[in-house]
Amino acid sequence: MSLNIGLVARCLNTEHIRGMGKYVYELLSHSKNHPEMHWRLFGDDDRHGMVTPPGANLETDVFTFRGDRFRAWEQVGLPLRLRKLDIDLLHATEGALSLWQPKPTVVTLHDTLAWEERPDTLGARLYWDHTIPAALKKCAHVITISECSRTDILARWPWLEPKLTVIPHGIDEAYFTNEQSAMHPELARQIGSAPYAVYLGGPMKRKRPEWAMEVIAASRQKDLKLVICGFGAAARRTAVAELPPHLQGRVLFAEFLSDAELRALYRGAQAVLYPTLYEGFGFPALEAQAAGVPVIFSALGSLKELIGPLAMVVPPHDLDAWVSALERAGSLGEQRATMVAAAAEWVRKFAWSESFASHLAVYRKVRG
């Protein structure tokens, strides 16, 4: 039986895809062995095309709709388009959905941060506190990405439980190969032969890049550098201009890295610093361990579910504990090989093939 799925794919309708885009990209990629599946990808930025995997059975539909300030593309433009199309269901992948649902709708609700961080304005209250909950009541199914997010969602809307499914993200298969990927040349030049740690997460306050810098500044390894990833061009310029003198030359801000370049960066690191205070999932905690690198984080939110053999769990605000963990990561000796082997086995339970199979089961349930 054919399965025609509309997919909100604005996270692929961009120059560079990030965490949410990686999720949608992997769904499409793992559908190649299912010729009965056909995707129609919706985007709203006509300056860019769609970043899509070769070989997937899909077509793209990028269109604009006036009133973006009022979410008119999502609430009016997309439903109008859906009404005229031969689509079995819509998957809204980005944590929001339209109140008007001319087709059965599945939504991925990654976490509840949008409600916790929304501005206290009339428009935001109407949208997040009234429109989206009403749309959730109407939708066919809700997917979330961790048990932590499931708990947070049901605390707000306990009536969602019968149609809520937890489907964790996966890990790129390239982490399980012997690829010889190279670091970004300019970044490699800046690092030179120095040991380094990696921070991922961008400039958002709850991700705490400043804390990662404090850890490096407090370390007794004065040749240790910190590579910060996830900052856009404007954020990089601001951060470089505000960098204190004692960290200049020690803190490097990476430009956008391809997946292969990021894996190479991971593999050469002494440790990954991941000081975020909340994540719906937390890709870096998983990717670092898959790459064979100790990752230092606090057991907050969904990160409690990602404590593997190479995780070093520390209190979120204990600087001495972070510094000690960083130094311990650099002195594991022969113990590290055992930890790396255990991590490689542990991380395999986070497979995109399993995630795709669970999504397909949801689609068929809704379709059937």
Q: In terms of topology, how is this protein built?
A:
Elements: E1 3-8, H1 19-29, E2 37-43, E3 58-62, H2 72-83, E4 89-92, E5 105-108, H3 113-117, H4 122-138, E6 141-144, H5 147-156, E7 164-166, H6 185-191, E8 196-200, H7 209-218, E9 225-229, H8 233-242, E10 251-253, H9 259-267, E11 271-273, H10 283-290, E12 295-297, E13 311-313, H11 319-329, H12 335-346, H13 352-367
Parallel strand pairs: 1-2, 1-4, 2-3, 4-5, 5-6, 6-7, 8-9, 8-11, 9-10, 11-12, 12-13
Protein name: Glycosyl transferase family 1
Pfam family, one: Glycos_transf_1
GO molecular function: glycosyltransferase activity
Could you characterize what this model shows?
This protein has 368 residues and is of the alpha/beta class. It has 2 domains: 3-170 and 351-367, Glycogen Phosphorylase B (Rossmann fold); 174-348, Rossmann fold, CATH 3.40.50.2000. The chain is 38% helix and 15% strand. The chain is built from 13 helices and 13 strands. The protein has helices spanning 19-29, 72-83, 113-117, 122-138, 147-156, 185-191, 209-218, 233-242, 259-267, 283-290, 319-329, 335-346, 352-367, and strands spanning 3-8, 37-43, 58-62, 89-92, 105-108, 141-144, 164-166, 196-200, 225-229, 251-253, 271-273, 295-297, 311-313. Strands 3-2-1-4-5-6-7 form a 7-stranded parallel beta sheet. The chain has a 6-stranded parallel beta sheet with strand order 10-9-8-11-12-13, with helices on both faces. β9, α8 and β10 form a beta-alpha-beta unit. α7 packs across α11. It is globular and about 65 Å long. The termini are close together. GO terms for molecular function: glycosyltransferase activity.
